[in-house]
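HUMAN: Ready with one sample?

ASSISTANT:
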Amino acid sequence: MSKTNWYVVHTYSGYENKVKANIEKTIENRKLQDQILEVSVPLQDVIEVKNGVKKKVQKKMFPGYVLLNMEMNDDTWYVVRNTRGVTGFVGPGSKPVPLTETEMKSMGIKKDDIVIDFELGDTVEVISGVWENTTGIIKQINTHKQIVTISVDMFGRETPVEISFTDIKKM
């Protein structure tokens, strides 16, 4: 697999979520999951005061933009560029420019790489969070999102639970 990078796509204002949904649907239909890994509309929590009442709301960090973690090739460029609501990639002319490591870290996109010492089938214990002190068997590992899916016994049934790499330890 080629190297994936984060790219920025410009959209019509207010169409960010629609563009995200359309790209995700196209990824599924064209089976491009291994080339377009993630579509994101970054949000931030903001406190708004209306009529003297404080309310916590989520606002788009970059209105008019959608972020994509993808492998750049003719197919992926065509799919994204021809999605309804997309006006183009950010970059000179028609050549998309990937985000740098520094830009990704400042936006909170790029996480530091974590070296893991577990693999599929290993039994792990959850060390923090809602599932603390729960044990489970690793069924899936997603290194891009830095999560594992473990199988937990809940009321006599196997239940899949997604846990961050940092919240588990090998038994």
About this structure: The chain has a mean pLDDT of 85.
